[in-house]
Amino acid sequence: MARKVDPELIADFQRRFRLAESANAENQKTFDHDRRFVYHDDAQWESDAVGARGDRPRVTINRLQVFARNITNEARESPVAIKTHPVDEYGDVHLAKIVDGLIRHVEHDSNASDVYAAAFEDAVTGGYGYFRVTTEYEREDSFCQCPKIKRILDPKTVKLDPFHEDPTGADAMWGIVHTRYSRDEFEKAWPDADPINAFGSDNAFWADREAGILVAEYFVVEEAEEKLHQLKDGSTVWDSEATKKQKVSATRSRMSCRRRVMWYKIGGQGEVLEDPVEFPSRYIPIIRMPGREWFEDGKRFTCGAIHYSKDAQRIYNYARSQQLERLALAPKAPFIGYAGQFTDKKWQTLNTKNWPFLEVEPITIAGNLAPLPQRSQVVGLDPALSEEIQLSNEEIKATTGITDANLGQHSNETSGRAIMARQQQGNRANADFISNRNIAIRQCGMILLDMFPRLYDEPRVARILGPDGQPDLVWIQREAQGRDGNKYFYDLSAGKYDIVIDVGPAYSTRRQEAAVAMTETLRSVPLIGQVAPDLIVQAQDWPDADKLAARLRKTIPPQILGKDADQDGGAQKQEQGPPPIPPELQQHVQELEQENQQLKQDSAVESNKLALEKYKVDQDNETKIRVALINAGQKIEEKNIAEQGANARHAAQSAAESALSPQAGTDGGQEIAPQSEDE
Known about the structure:
By secondary structure, the chain is α+β, with helices and mostly antiparallel strands.
């Protein structure tokens, strides 16, 4: 079924295609010329010079390729590591390490080091390079997609928004990657499409008799106004994706511009060959790696590292060709002798054949034998040409900024410090290329970081790689137990993160450097060999160095290992698990298990009996306590009643005695005189 033609979309595509082609025409011309100059010997000679020399010697000593390789190979020896860092309160450092592992896996699975190196080589030799990020299914029987980093073989097939300001094209609003198909290939890939029947002038844009039919991937940024809601926890959600409850409970809302990238495949006679798809990122997935660029009158100009060395290379080739020509045309020094000495015919072919011996006719002069023939003085080379060759060679070094120390050649420097200083001087001259490579790789990391939450939006097991390249598996969007025994939930959409670039030697190189440094330090501080022998062995590049380090770690006292002892013990238990049971002991183990089960049952019965007896004793004790309390209460009550009765009787008796006795005094504290018996 043929796709529907969208006239407005096709018109925008053609207009933008021609706009990018026109804006980059001069840079494209410089790119083609510089690249051919480096890789094609014939390109180092101007057509006029070739015609003028005719059949005369014309040699090309391509020194620029060595200088370009020096810059690109230095970058290969200093790989870039993409790292993420949280930038808000919802970001997590542990989750950032998981994202780092995902990025390393994508780079490893995509051979990203070769992709970066190819784009960097284009930037050094031509002025700019490109690579891209795409999506692929993990397997042919899977619905899970994962990002891929891919190389763009020919930078001329990229048409990027010329109004972008970011050197990597991060702010581009559209981008095109196109290729050409033959008619047979086109009909096989899209049998329902309408191929071009004739390569006429009307179809010149879409078809070319030699190149074939144009097929392009067209990326467009579409922006639309939409309401954005902020929830109570600080997170945000778009109005089209929010629930009614989220809309009602939102703390605040505002209109915002929602950005998405659409992917189209266009070809044939200007029709959409496949259904449009939203690309899972907010960036155009085409990364530009600039070389050396500057702006003039609002236009961007680019060039490579060898652009200003081409004239010096031409002079070098011309001087060497002239020197070779003079050396070839210079006559060989003739033999000088007396007439009659050269009767042997071998003398006539002396300059073209190597004779093992020559015969001379003896001649006498005044009775004396004439001396043997001898060669005259040899004609030397032109010293001016040698000086010009040396001067042009120095000019190539001066224009590229690469010194003899960078090329590994001997120079005036003798000490290691002086050689390193000269190498750093050469590195600084081309540091802008390394810096531009780093920002391009950083933009690649930004695209991957933006793609992960969109692609890993459902529970799945993902493969990650550690800094040392060791693989591991983790659950994404699902709570799972880590190797340390703790539970983690990796939600890649939670929090915001930033990308930083770590430039330096590869992990293996750093490991070798660490091993050398540890060995040197061990000589001056032998105590290190007692407290950290496992770390020293682990840094070595031996087979089974990790196993030997693990064995040494077991011999170190726990007080020296500290927290590492507990972590290593827990990790070993989790990784190793229970040891396997030998077959001869399995029956004995089963018998023990049965006896253990019977003991458990007997123990349960005895426990029930003891519990029942304890319950009876507790009930009996409780009854006795209650009776005792009742008896004690009765005795206390009887005692209180008896005491109250005795007190009452005593009070009555005292009152009676007072009533019967006569008063002997008055009130007021006066004494009462005792009464006599007569009274």
